[in-house]
Automatic annotation (TrEMBL):
Residues 88-216 form the GST C-terminal domain. It is found in: Cytoplasm, Cytosol. This is glutathione transferase. Keywords: Cytoplasm, Detoxification, Transferase. InterPro entries: Glutathione-S-Trfase_C-like (IPR010987), Glutathione-S-Trfase_C_sf (IPR036282), Glutathione_S-Trfase (IPR040079), Glutathione_S-Trfase_N (IPR004045), GST_C (IPR004046), GST_Phi_C (IPR034347), Thioredoxin-like_sf (IPR036249). Its EC number is 2.5.1.18. SUPFAM superfamilies: GST C-terminal domain-like, Thioredoxin-like. CDD domains: GST_C_Phi (cd03187), GST_N_Phi (cd03053). GO terms for biological process: glutathione metabolic process; toxin catabolic process. It is an enzyme of class 2 (transferase). It comes from the Eukaryota. Gene3D superfamilies: 1.20.1050.10, Glutaredoxin.
Amino acid sequence: MVVKVYGPHCASAKRVLVCLVEKKIEFEVVPVNVLEGEHKDPEYLKLQPFGTVPVIKDGDYTLYESRAIMRYYAEKYRSQGVELLGKTIEEKGLVEQWLEVEAHNFHPSAYNLTCHVLCPTLLGGSSPDPKVIEESEAKLVKVFNIYEERLSKNKYLAGDFFSLADISHLPFMDYVVNNMGKDYLIKDKKHVSAWWNDISSRPSWNKVLELYKPPI
Ligand SMILES: N[C@@H](CCC(=O)N[C@@H](CS(=O)(=O)O)C(=O)NCC(=O)O)C(=O)O
């Protein structure tokens, strides 16, 4: 049974797609036009009651939350493709730690910038708020300072191996650094810059970006 990934053009779905490519897992995509509100259709809400993308269907198995989906496939196909969870329980612990750091320290500010700078339609009619943009950038500076220190000792966030924690950053780092042109946030951080250049050069990321261009 081939896994179906709903909403491939959206950022959070790209975490899942990169994971599947790295693990050499065959997949199909089901486009969901969030700008037209298709993610709020009753049929879609039966799959994902919170009305966000992505969700996957793998036979009778349905799963949403992009990071949970990545963890599921990285575990289920552990011996296939690139190892994305580390080799020891200690390494796996660090992968989980940096996945949580991405979700709770990096993502909120990156998502705020996405809404207020890149896609104000996500604001539901409100106007972009310069104060939110300023505060979000300041928070990201603090996050990248911590990343700079971590990456001065390790090639990747969880250690000297590429993992789900690095994949999880790809879509919104691309929005912040490239789509928003806020590369100045990392340009003076040589280890963060080297890390970003490394992970964003991966064929898996560039394949997904080429196949499923963002809707914004
Ligand atoms: N925590 C969820 C977040 C999913 C999410 O917010 N998806 C956005 C699209 S994107 O920001 O990932 O591109 C969405 O559906 N937005 C539409 C909406 O919130 O109505 C996950 O990681 O899957």
